Amino acid sequence: MKFFIDTANLDQIAEAQDMGVLDGVTTNPSLMAKEGITGEQNIIDHYKKICDLVDGHVSAEVISTDFEGMVKEGEALAALNDQIVVKLPMIKDGVKACKYFSDKGVKTNVTLVFSPGQALLAAKAGATYVSPFIGRLDDISTDGLNLIAEIRMIYDNYGFETEILAASVRHTMHVIECAKLGADVMTGPLSSIDGLLKHPLTDIGLAKFLADYKKGNS
Ligand code: E4P
Question: For 144, which DSSP code?
Answer without folding.
Answer: H
